[in-house]
What does this fold into?
Amino acid sequence: MTGGAKPRSKAARGRGKGDQAIMALDLPMAALSPTMEAYFSKCREKIGFIPNVLLAYAHNSAKLEAFVGFYNELMLGPSGLSKLEREMIAVVVSAENRCFYCLTAHGAAVRALSGDPQLGEMLAMNYRVATLSPRWRSMLDFAAQLTREAYVGEAERDALRRAGFSEADIWDIAAVAAFFNQSNRMAAAVDMRPNDAYHTQAR
Amino acid sequence: MTGGAKPRSKAARGRGKGDQAIMALDLPMAALSPTMEAYFSKCREKIGFIPNVLLAYAHNSAKLEAFVGFYNELMLGPSGLSKLEREMIAVVVSAENRCFYCLTAHGAAVRALSGDPQLGEMLAMNYRVATLSPRWRSMLDFAAQLTREAYVGEAERDALRRAGFSEADIWDIAAVAAFFNQSNRMAAAVDMRPNDAYHTQAR
Amino acid sequence: MTGGAKPRSKAARGRGKGDQAIMALDLPMAALSPTMEAYFSKCREKIGFIPNVLLAYAHNSAKLEAFVGFYNELMLGPSGLSKLEREMIAVVVSAENRCFYCLTAHGAAVRALSGDPQLGEMLAMNYRVATLSPRWRSMLDFAAQLTREAYVGEAERDALRRAGFSEADIWDIAAVAAFFNQSNRMAAAVDMRPNDAYHTQAR
Amino acid sequence: MTGGAKPRSKAARGRGKGDQAIMALDLPMAALSPTMEAYFSKCREKIGFIPNVLLAYAHNSAKLEAFVGFYNELMLGPSGLSKLEREMIAVVVSAENRCFYCLTAHGAAVRALSGDPQLGEMLAMNYRVATLSPRWRSMLDFAAQLTREAYVGEAERDALRRAGFSEADIWDIAAVAAFFNQSNRMAAAVDMRPNDAYHTQAR
Amino acid sequence: MTGGAKPRSKAARGRGKGDQAIMALDLPMAALSPTMEAYFSKCREKIGFIPNVLLAYAHNSAKLEAFVGFYNELMLGPSGLSKLEREMIAVVVSAENRCFYCLTAHGAAVRALSGDPQLGEMLAMNYRVATLSPRWRSMLDFAAQLTREAYVGEAERDALRRAGFSEADIWDIAAVAAFFNQSNRMAAAVDMRPNDAYHTQAR
Amino acid sequence: MTGGAKPRSKAARGRGKGDQAIMALDLPMAALSPTMEAYFSKCREKIGFIPNVLLAYAHNSAKLEAFVGFYNELMLGPSGLSKLEREMIAVVVSAENRCFYCLTAHGAAVRALSGDPQLGEMLAMNYRVATLSPRWRSMLDFAAQLTREAYVGEAERDALRRAGFSEADIWDIAAVAAFFNQSNRMAAAVDMRPNDAYHTQAR
It folds into this structure.
């Protein structure tokens, strides 16, 4: 054997079985507010584990709560975009930014919600190879350009309108794409690690 | 006169005196929750106007509240970074992304908080021309690289540690830089316009 | 349901069960030389299917034979690099170029040869997040830079020498990285589709 | 206080009150030709100071004189472009190149000549957010592309013709845009510092 | 004299008169197969020298033979593209990648086959300045985009079809462009040096 | 024959034998000042032709004279840089910008002044393949970075100082590199064509 794994930074925090590091910063978990304790319990019940992004934010209960509030409104709140569509945008943005954490976690979500594992793979690798409806293609083109150039103009907004999106839908497409430009950078900056469970979900 | 202004999209929403458009999406202002009504009143009292970013989010009271919660925790909550330092990161990220709204609003904040208008100008134009302490230079280099490449590694985290930043400080530098990668894209996507007041503040 | 699949170009050639298109060019399969007929039989026996890249080249038996000769010498011939290492380079180059075909086929190979599915995922998404031995890190850095910049200098060759690679090993690292810059572009240019089997292999 | 200013290179030359450095090269001011002496006197009379770019060139009277001759013909000589239009091109090119000196000096000129301080800010931050006449938009698009790609073709020249520009106007747009690609790099290469006066002009 | 040449790496292999290095790797020439011996003799007879790319591959007879087989089928085999057209693609790809070896060797081929030395120069410097037939322009645009972006879509394939290229022609354009993305990187990775003869050919 | 030349824009101005176009703008030659008439005569005597860049500027005698004054001071005036060194910078900058006119004219100058035609070719294709003295390498690295990024810092200036360049030399390196960033864009913007004579000079 010629290669092999190098141990990660000693500073990295381990949690849960196997004491696996979840990020490169050495920040102990804080005492959580009752609301957040309850939320963590709900995670364990519903999906069987606490997503590592939440454990990473949990070094500060106030930051965790603000993040959870913002995230859940965006990805699970009422919207003209389906949950699958929001996850598709998340994956395409994360592919542009090559974010290991988000591609793993949200790639699993696209595979699960779409029932089409290859769609998840295509969006994570290069969404332009997928044969998509005009609605989906314009939505993902907008998200990808906004990610790459940090700029879109009236022509790009009009392309979404022509594809049938409402003004509120355009806000939501922008908001999801913008949010993952934040999350991708947060994950990279602290070297966040996805839970193992995602890798085999919905293959 | 050979040039001149073209009227903006009819869809754009106007609010306040002069019915000036605040963004390119035609989204009527929603009924706000009492908490948000109170927050808007406090803005008018304290700074004399409501920042247009809040008016833009106000098409949906729940989204507005989630945004305000996340933003205030990040920029005004307890942190090893001073408020000026957080604003400096905001400006440098917004300069990388060429965001008119954020450069205008947060450039004014840097001028005001630092008492050094030229520092604000330098960060908005090209932070590398400013003569900065190693602490500030490493903080802004990290933010700029994270913005451009959406990636940093252990070497970049170690540079912050050597400059004296704690693990929690590194989280906060990352969090502010990541957040403005979101805000810059949100502002671009809906063509958000800064309040006129910012332009002349603290010159 | 708001989205959905659009049928691919009528010109695309279908082969095998379900008449699935393997590329966007409409090129009928040629009569193959006896050597290539035998090679196709061996593929069916050994791995249960004929990789679509070979079916794509099979519109011209001479081109197919030249490709197979070049490919097999490079990826399966004697070398100081293990087969896994050659597949790792293939995946990292294909990730830089965002090649759906090669990431799918060679990502499966890395998962299978390494027995470490997450290694395959990391290389396909962003190899810099993987904790690697100096040998592997230098090998993949060299391949990634050669891909992105189409240039490396003596400093980059010396980094490989310091990591223990021989002159012949350096040739082979370069040759595999260069080859996949060809294959990625060939796959993109004709919109080559990977066989379904790869997606679920070695998860 | 956590940050603070670092003194600039000892080599940097100071001139005028406060002995403030005007660039990073240590080049003493030369004896000027009578023409240049007269020109400097005229500057002091008319605008109250000598622009630092001229003081920087003044280490060599012949170079200074050639520069002044070329600059004044270009920016002040007869042209189908107004002086404001030439300054607008200067600012947009300098924004692409993130040139602190030129954005400061020529941003002030756009604010003053246009009587529209926000126009100056928009061009310095991201000209694409400004609502402009087709004439101005095409002029600035041409300048920005020429800056970024160092290439334009007949399609780009034809866009200027359709916007009403003559062949001589196209030459002048190109000449101003090309010139500031020179000036921006000269300012960066020697770390030229704008006179303080510009920062507060025409706000 | 202020500058001057620095001797190249001692490791570099010399061959032929003057013992000039042909690449930066120190790999002794292998015993060649009879087929390759015969091929080298034919080179010496027909063009008076052995191209250095072949001498570089000659450290391994099997690799050399696989390369020669692949190359000759591609560049000299039957095709709807003329030999000049294949060489034009080689030069344009090599210009995008700034490959000294391939620009020198294939630039000479374009000058010789076209009888138009300036065409060779233009393609080596910036093919967009050449006034070309729609057939040639679309062929070179496709090759340049495939090189730069490692991606083309159905729109780009359709542009070739409209210019009169058959499905097999499109394969061949893609194959030549893809191949030189390999060769350029191979040449850069080992610092391959072109034979002196090319520089003065067909000027 | 499958390809062929397309006639250039009718607007293009022709001059001299064969009525060959020298640029894409239709600007008639102006009456020249006596100084410029004399300068053109000197060109014809000394080098046998008038460089097309001068004929292009000659649509306006004042612009021509300002350009000639600036150019001759820079490239032929007193300097710590030899004329060859200034031409080498011109070629490396023009290669970064892929400027056909300047690569042709100044490539010929490097071949002639150095007596080393291959040096001219290497600088025009990729200067990093040339084996250069530390003085030349640092000079060209500075020029190339200034061209690509429009930014250099104190570290880059110090690299020149360590290579033995004086403060005045650094100014001159910057000035030549900056100037060709102007000239390259001027040539591209008006599609300037080099005189045929350059192509065969000093091969």
Observations:
- Residues 1-19 of chain F have pLDDT under 50 and may be disordered.
